[in-house]
């Protein structure tokens, strides 16, 4: 039954996404320009690292290529948010003008229906940039990869991706009570800049905050340690991203379902 349900939703997603692609390909210049813009944004993000490491040889014990590895890991982990959940940014307009009510009228999951309407193609350029950076940093660091480490990398990335996705969903869910969640979403989205750097560069208060309260340290820093160190030398927290991701997504899904039950349209 579970497999049949997954196949059912997969087929629907392909149909919805194919229609979205047809619409977007009518504006190819917009796609090209936005993809270039995404690449430039990620390149500019590396610039502070280059400036810092022109003055120092290490940052809290991390070399330039180790920081680049963490940075690239974060870009890959954040790509699903960009690709599959970008419609989060449009939620406030649907809530204000009352059009969100249409998502209740189909016999499918509301979150799936809403999020599947937008596939942000330019996120593919972020994914490619992150993968290229990860490979380049790995080569410079002399990291060796085998089937076990690659599978572990994919599992870690999946868990890491769920963390930021979950935080954004919970931020969006506030809109069902405060009507316009744009500023809450924008505030949470800013944390994507913090996840690109080691948690250890912060003081003890923020280390605790970003580990146990707002666990963005598990998006890139902690799981990266599995590959920057040997599996036996890595801290226990390095193995926790999948668990944290699943738990946080479960909370986000519960929050979303509770929130949509409180929605009654514009009332007009």
From TrEMBL:
Ranges annotated as spanning the membrane: 31-53, 65-85, 127-157, 163-189, 201-224, 236-256
Domain of life: Bacteria
Protein's organism: Paenibacillus lutrae
Entry-linked InterPro entries: ABC-2_transporter-like
Name by which UniProt lists this protein: ABC transporter permease
Keyword field: Membrane, Transmembrane, Transmembrane helix
């Amino acid at each position: 039954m579970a497999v049949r349900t997954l196949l059912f939703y997969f087929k629907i997603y392909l149909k919805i996404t194919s229609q979205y692609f047809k619409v977007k390909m009518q504006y190819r210049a917009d796609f090209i320009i936005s993809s270039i813009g995404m690449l430039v944004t990620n390149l500019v993000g590396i610039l502070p690292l280059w400036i810092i490491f022109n003055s120092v040889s290490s940052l809290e014990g991390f070399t330039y290529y180790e920081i680049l590895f963490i940075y690239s890991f974060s870009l890959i982990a954040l790509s699903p948010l960009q690709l599959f959940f970008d419609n989060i940014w449009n939620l406030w307009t649907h809530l204000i003008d009352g059009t969100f009510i249409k998502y209740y009228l189909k016999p499918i999951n509301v979150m799936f229906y809403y999020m599947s309407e937008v596939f942000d193609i330019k996120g593919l350029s972020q994914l490619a940039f992150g993968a290229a950076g990860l490979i380049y940093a790995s080569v410079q660091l002399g990291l060796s990869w085998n089937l076990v480490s690659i599978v572990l990398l994919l599992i870690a990335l999946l868990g890491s991706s769920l963390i930021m996705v979950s935080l954004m969903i919970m931020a969006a869910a506030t809109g069902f009570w405060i009507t316009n969640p744009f500023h809450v979403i924008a505030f949470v989205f800013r944390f994507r800049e913090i996840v690109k750097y080691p948690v250890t560069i912060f003081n003890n208060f923020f280390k605790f905050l970003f580990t146990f309260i707002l666990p963005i340290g598990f998006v890139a820093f902690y799981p990266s340690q599995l590959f920057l160190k040997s599996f036996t030398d890595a801290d226990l927290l390095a193995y926790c991203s999948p668990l944290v991701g699943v738990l946080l997504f479960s909370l986000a899904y519960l929050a979303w379902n509770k929130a949509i039950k409180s929605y009654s349209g514009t009332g007009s």
